[in-house]
Amino acid sequence: MTLRIEYRTVAPGAVRALAGLNGYSDHCSLSPAMRRLLEILVSRINGCSYCIETHKQQALDLDVAGTRIEALKNWQESAEFSSAEKAAFAWAESVTNISTSGAPDELYQNLQQHFSEAEMIDITFVVLAMNAWNRLAIAFGREAGMA
Hints:
Blueprint: H1 7-10, H2 12-25, H3 32-46, H4 49-61, H5 66-71, H6 83-96, H7 98-101, H8 105-114, H9 117-139
Helix pairs in contact: 2-9, 3-4, 3-6, 3-9, 6-8, 6-9
């Protein structure tokens, strides 16, 4: 696929508005590593190669082990992740697929066992922002390797 529209140039105000969520996430209650793992997971679910590669590199720059990044492909069965991380990943997957998952109570209750209300909101905002960026990149043809 080729880039359909350079949305960053055509609609810089819209991109700045969406980037505001990233600005919030830069200072939220989650560790930078957890944020990047969530972003990679959501981007994998959505099939956004550009975002996968971008956040994978950011995670590596934070010294997140490559084995943990790769283990996101099968996070449910992986021993690489804690029960808290798995609860966050399940929630992220559910929110990303909300039209079919409905964000069930059991996942919410599991998330509550591991995170404060502020952390649960921050996890959800990271997921929301990543879903928006994924949809923008995929809709307009931004792929891995593009600047």
